[in-house]
Amino acid sequence: MESKTIALVKVLGTEYEILSADPEHKDLHGSGHDGVCDYLTHRILISNLSDWDETEDRKAEYTKQTLRHEIIHAFLFESGLGYNSEKSEHWAMNEEMTDFFALQFPKIINTMKKAGAL
Ligand SMILES: [Zn+2]
Fold first, then answer.
1. Would you give the end-to-end CA distance of the chain in angstroms?
2. What does each of the 118 residues of the chain score in pLDDT, given as a tens digit?
3. Cα(100) to centroid of ligand 1, in Å?
4. What span, in angstroms and rounded, lies between the C-alpha atoms of 84 and 71?
5. Ligand 1 centre and the CA of 98: distance in Å?
6. Distance of CA 34 from the midpoint of ligand 1 (Å)
């Protein structure tokens, strides 16, 4: 199996296809990443971690975290922020900033729900 579609999602009105792929997939292998967001083809590729010697719980949590990270990249790209940040030291491509949203989003949304902010 090279890859298979696991979801179709809307990112600011644009449909993105989310695919699960073997770590050997050409877009993942050698990249040093377990996820890739291609804003040109509107596809997010996530490794199925078949090469990981880890528990299923840890793999599942890592996969969700990676997916949230790539979805945030998609939102930034679709917002026109992907490549217009040179004067701010590439903040929209900054991995720490993207990880901030990927890690904190579930907490932020829970807080917003409880606060009636949505
Ligand atoms: Zn990233």
1. 40
2. 588 999 998 888 899 999 999 999 998 987 889 999 999 999 999 999 999 999 999 999 999 999 888 988 888 888 877 776 666 677 777 787 888 788 888 888 888 788 788 7
3. 11
4. 18
5. 6
6. 10
Cβ atoms of residues 46 and 34 within 8 Å: yes
Report the separation in Å between the CA atom of 114 and the middle of ligand 1, taken as the mean of its atom positions: 29
Nearest to 38 by CA among 62, 59, 61, 14: 14
Which tokens in the block code for residue 17?
């296809």
For residue 26, what are its two tokens?
A: 């050409």
Give residue 56 CA to ligand 1 midpoint distance, Å.
Answer: 23
The pLDDT of residue 86 is 62
Structural domains of the chain, with CATH: 3-114 (1.10.10)
Task: Using the mean position of ligand 1's atoms as its centre, give its distance from the Cα of residue 118 in Å.
Answer: 27
